[in-house]
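Sample intake sheet
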Amino acid sequence: MALGDAIQNLEQLEERLSEPTPEVVQTFNRLEGDLVVLGVGGKMGPSLARMARRASDLAGRPRRILGVARFSAPGLESALRDHGIETLRCDLLDEAAVRRLPDAPNVLYLAGMKFGATGQEPLTWAMNTCLPAIICRQYPRSRIVAFSTGNVYGLVPASSGGSLESDTPAPVGEYAMSCLGRERVFEHFSRAQGIRAVLLRLNYACDLRYGVLVDLAQKVLAGAPIDLGMSWFNTLWQGDANAMTLRCFDHAASPPLRLNLTGPELLNVRQTCEKLGRLLGRAPVFSGAESPTALLSNASRAFGLLGPPRVNAGQLLAWVAAWLQQGGPTLNKPTHFEARDGRF
C-alpha cells in the first residue's frame, strides 16, 4: 500500500502500524541483544512489538522480542506468537514474578495506569511510581525507553506553541502527579546506577480505533455535543509514534533524555470537527466556551533527533473519517483529552 492510501481493514491497519521505516531498521542493525516489551498488552504494545520483530528480521540481526503482560484480552497472546514474538505472563507489581523475567539489554516500558485512575488512586500510584523502581532493580544494566505523558505539563496558551521539555512540570490531578513521580523514579535510578534511559512524553497517539480524532469523529457522527473547553490538542499517527519510539534506543542516556512525542500541528477542536463534519456529512454540535489554554506539547526536539512524522494531521483526519464511515471497529477507549481538572 502507498502511504496515502485509505486503510480498508484490520489486516491493513496492523500491517501499516507495524511497518518499520528504514531508519528503524538501521537502529535495529546497530542494536545489540534482545528486547523486552513490558506492558505489551496495551493499545500500542502489540504493534510496537511487531515493528521491532520486523525491523530485526530486515536488519538480519537475530534477537528475541519478548512481550510481557497479564494477557487479559482474548487472542492477543496467540496473535503475538504468530508474528514471532515470545510472550510471558506476569503481574508486574509482583516483584518475585518480575525477578523471574529473562535479562535483556533493551527494555521498552509501556506499563502504567490512566483510565480509571479516579477512584483507584492507590493502584494508580503503585503502577506509575512503584513499578519503575521494581523494573530498574531488575534491569540495572539495560537501555530503557519508557513512556511518560504530556500531562506532566500544565495548560498553556496555544500561542506558546506548546510546552517544551525544559519547562517546569505543573501536573494537574493525581494521575498526572503520579506520572511525574514515574519520571522522577526513573531519573533517580538512572543517576544512581547509570541506567541509560529515554522518557517519552506522549501526547496523543492515534490509531484508527482510538485517539482524539476518533473521539471527535464519533461525536460528530452521533450528533453528540462536543465540549470546546479544551479547545486545542496535538496528535500523532501511531505508526509514526511506534517508529520514533524504537529509534530512541539510539539516544538512551544517563541522566535520562526527555522527549515530547506528538505531531507538529496544534489542532483547534472547532476547526477539526468542522473538517470532520464535511468528510462525514454531518454538522458538528458544540457546547461550552473555548479556552485560550490547553494541554499542548512542542515536539521539535524529537523531530530534530528522529525526523518529522510521515503522516500529517490532514491525512490522519481523512483516514479516521473513512474508517468510521465504513464501520471499522474501535476499542471503546476514549482519551478523555477534554478533561481540564486532571480526573480520568
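Comment: The first strand starts at residue 35 and ends at 38. The mean pLDDT is 94.
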